[in-house]
Amino acid sequence: MNRNVFIHMMVVAFLMAGITGVQAQGFNPNQQQQQEIEVSDTELQTFAQIMQEVQQVQKNSQGTMLKAIKDNGLEVQRYQEIARAKQKGQDANMSSEEQKAYQAVQEVLKQEQQKMRQKMNSILENYSMDRQRYIRISRALQRDQELQQRLQQLRQQQQPQQ
User: How far apart, in whole angstroms, are the C-alpha atoms of residue 19 and residue 117?
Assistant: First the structure.
């Protein structure tokens, strides 16, 4: 369970890193949070389909990330400790072997992040949804309980079809 939580957190962080690029290009999240957005049922259904495909991409990437950690001789828990320390600007007390392994894992994760971003962009393009619109709907879902319920109902309706 701890491993799955870690991997999920990494995937979210990678996706957020991609979103940060959109924000730097002129998307102001604070401005959007002040405005409620309208999402039609059709658009929400498209969003749900995109979300399913993105989750599959995430699942596939999780395996790659976990393999990179193990292939470089690190335990997932140790990698987490190092990553947390680095994020906080603290000394991770790494041996030279761990430093090399950590750097190798970081390179793989960076490449995987790029692949995920490309796949996500491709999914969005296939559904003709703008990346900024996807982000706006994602953020609205974090705040709007009614929108969350609508999405949940749509997903429940889709499940018997799959």
Answer: 9
CB atoms within 10 A of CB 154: 17
Helix axes 96-126, 76-87, angle to 10 degrees: 90
Task: Region of 93 please: left (phi>0), alpha (psi -120 to 50) or beta.
Answer: left
Confidence bin at 28 (pLDDT 50/70/90):
very low
Residue 18 pLDDT more than 70?
no
Report yes or no on 146 lying in a domain.
yes
| 135: nearest Cα among 39, 10, 66 | 39
Q: Look up the pTM and report it.
A: 0.67
49, 143 contact by CB (below 8 A): no
- For residue 31, being part of any structural domain is answered with no
C-alpha–C-alpha distance, residues 23 and 135, integer Å: 10
